[in-house]
Structure formats: C-alpha cells, structure tokens
Amino acid sequence: MKIDDIILQVKPQLTVERFEHTLRVRDTAAELAERYGEDKEKIELAAVCHDYAKYRPLDEMKRWIIQSTLPKDLLHYHHELWHGPVGAILTERELGIKDPGIQSAIHYHTTGRANMSKMEMIIFLADYIEPGRQFPGVQEVRDAAEEDLLKACWLTSRNTVRYLMKKNTLVYPDSFHAYNDLTRKINGGH
Amino acid sequence: MKIDDIILQVKPQLTVERFEHTLRVRDTAAELAERYGEDKEKIELAAVCHDYAKYRPLDEMKRWIIQSTLPKDLLHYHHELWHGPVGAILTERELGIKDPGIQSAIHYHTTGRANMSKMEMIIFLADYIEPGRQFPGVQEVRDAAEEDLLKACWLTSRNTVRYLMKKNTLVYPDSFHAYNDLTRKINGGH
Predict the structure, then answer these.
(1) pTM of the predicted protein model
(2) pLDDT above 80 for B190
(3) CB 3.0–4.6 Å: which of B6, B35, B101, B114 could bond B181 by disulfide?
C-alpha cells in the first residue's frame, strides 16, 4: 500500500490545520524512526493515520466502541480520547491497513500505555513535539527526544497527566499506567 | 474497648513526634465526624491507630503483605505505602480491633481509593490537614473541609498525586483511582 494513496484518503477526513499537523507528525516521527532504528515506512503510515477518526461524529465513535472489542470504559471518559482507539479500527476497515503494530500506535497515541512498543512511543512522542506544538515545557521534551526516547516519552506522559490534573479533569487509566511504567524504566523502579 | 487503653498500646509503637501527630489527627477527625455526622468513637479509634504500623521493620511489613490477602502489587511501590494496609491487619491481631470500617480507614489513609466511605474520607483528610501540617495548599483544603467533605478529599487526592508526580515518583493505583472517582463526583463526570 502506497503512503501517497493513504494520504489522499486521510486528507478529506481532516480540517486543513489538522492535516498540516498530521504531515508534521509524519516528518517528526520519520526522524525519530531513523534516530532510534524503527521501520520508517510503517512509522510514516501510523503517523499519517493517527488522527484519521478525529472528526467522526460522536455517535459513530460511540457505536464503534460498543460494537467492537475496544474497552467500554472509554465511554466514561472524555470523547477526545475516543478517536485513537476508533481510528485503529477504521484505518483497518476503511484503508485496509492491517498491521497490529501500526494499529496499536494509532490506538494509544493520545494516552500512551504501559509497555509501549518503540513504534507506539514514537507516534505518542511525535504527536506531542511536532514543530507546530507550542506550550510550556515542549522544548525540554524536544531536547530529550534527541537522545533518549524513553525519557522523552516519560516527560510527555508526565506533562500530559499533570496538565489534565491541573485542569481538574479525569485521567484515563492508560495515561496513568504509561506514567508509572515509564517512571519505573527511567528511575529504576521508584 | 476503651480508646485510652488503645492509646497506651499505640504510643510505644511511635516516635514522640508521630504520636503527637496521631493525637492531632484524632482531634481533627473527631471534629470532622461531628461536622459530617459520623460515629465519633469509631473515627477516633481509627485515627489513633492509623499509623500503628509506621515503624515496623520493612521485612516484617513485607512478610505481612505476602502472607495476608493484601494486594501483592504493594511490594512494587514505595514502602511508605505499606504501613496503612499492614496497620489494618496488625490493629486487628494485636489490638483486637475488628471493625471492617475502621480497618479500611486505616488501610487507605495514605492513598485513598475509589468509592471511599465517609469514615475513610475523614481519616484520609484529617491526616492531611491536622494543624501540624504545613505545606503550600493546605489552607485551601482546611477551608474546604469546613463545608464540603468530598471537595476537601478531592483536593487532598489531587494535591497528593500532583506532588508525587512533581517528585517523579510512582503513584500507587488507588491514589489515582481516588482522584478520578472524586473528580467525577465533584465535576459531575468530566
């Protein structure tokens, strides 16, 4: 499957800004793939598709969660969390992408999870640090991404959970498990 | 069972400072019990015993965790988290306290958990706001405790998790579940 064909199918699903963000995630993820020795073609495919379901109607996403094997507890958390898991399903059904590694990277790109694969980490991180992102602390994560994939993902995870708690919102369990898992790996278990 | 007898048995288990803290937790918890309509006698018993296992040797606490029905994942988190759960067991075995509500308040006083009982909330909160505690944000929690038990517990839980993450340490799942559960109850589900 050619990535250019996929891009043509992804584009009409997104707003102009979101599509541009998607291309920046692709470029950032490709750099990370090269730096950390991951399959660049697969990474680019995952990056291009990571927000595929972003603008699906909430009703449709809800239906996919109910009708699929996706965890039902998603329905009790903010709908912003739905497009990753639903995107993993729709990119298989609608775009014919059937690579569990890619699907999983799309699924977990917002929350992360415990025991992320390298591909999952790269998409999770690229989505956070692509050059269009501007918020306090992002430069520290970009710097870490130059030399330590785990540490950069840990910072991403920690910043994300702390940001959610600062806003007094719920934190999906996978976000929290990602934080604990990466903290263990960075700190050696404390 | 008379609380004065229990106090006499708790005192030699603690340092002087920790014993004074314990008495302040008792007084704070008694006030909260009165304010929020909870059994004052039970609350005082739970408060007096909450740190009972605090200075047990780590090896002994570890053994209790392994030999009892306590969750084994405690062993993968900081030993500071062990004295609550182990205290719940030891106060039954050594002090003869056999009230599941009291035991549970001792068990969860450090982390909280989802669906806390009123007694659990009062001990969790009293331990955090007793007058000897001095740290940024404590006054806001004391103020909240004057009129809204749930909100005060939510602040306690949120502050605790954020503090742990600021120190880059692991967060025990119950702490996180307490935060999400209380956030739902405060915010109405977001």
Answers:
(1) 0.94
(2) no
(3) B114
pLDDT at A189: 54
> How far apart are alpha carbons B21 and B131 in whole angstroms?
9
Say if the Cβ atoms of B158 and A180 lie within 8 Å. Answer: no
Q: What is the DSSP letter of B176?
A: H
Range from A90-94, B15-19, B83-87, B186-190 carrying the lowest mean pLDDT: B186-190
Contact residues, chain B, for A166 at CB < 8 Å: 162
Q: CA-CA distances (angstroms) from residue B53 to A177, B77, B79, B110? A: 28, 17, 12, 13
CA distance B113 to chain A (A): 14
CA–CA distances in Å: residue A152 to residues A13, A122, A148, A155: 30, 10, 6, 5
Distance of CA B156 to the CA centre of its chain: 11
Count of alpha carbons within 13 Å of B6, Cβ hemisphere only?
24
Q: Which residue reads 């993968």 in tokens?
A: B76
Those residues of chain A whose CB sits closer than 8 Å to some CB in chain B are 76, 78, 158, 161-162, 165-166, 168-171, 173, 176, 179-180, 183-184, 186-187, 189-190
The number of beta carbons lying within 10 Å of the beta carbon of residue A36 is 17
Q: Which amino acid is at A38?
A: E
Query: How many CB atoms are closer than 10 A to CB A66?
Result: 11
CATH topology of domain B3-135: Hypothetical protein af1432 (1.10.3210)
Q: Residues B165, B171: contact at Cβ < 8 Å?
A: yes
> Nearest CA to B79 among B179, B174, B172, B175?
B172
Q: Do B183 and A170 touch (CB under 8 A)?
A: yes
Task: Give the model's confidence band at A1: pLDDT under 50 very low, under 70 low, under 90 confident, else very high.
Answer: low
From B76, B180, B189, residue closest to A171, measured CB to CB: B180
Nearest one of B74, B97, B99 to B86, comparing CA atoms: B74
Question: What angle, 0 to 180 degrees and rounded to 10, lies between the N-to-C axes of helices B149-166 and B16-36?
Answer: 140
Asked whether A45 and A6 are in contact (CB, 8 A), the reply is yes
In 3D space, the residue among A19, A26, A32, A55 whose CA is nearest the CA of residue A142 turns out to be: A32
Residue-wise pLDDT for B40-83, tens only, equals 999 999 999 999 999 999 999 999 999 999 999 999 999 999 99
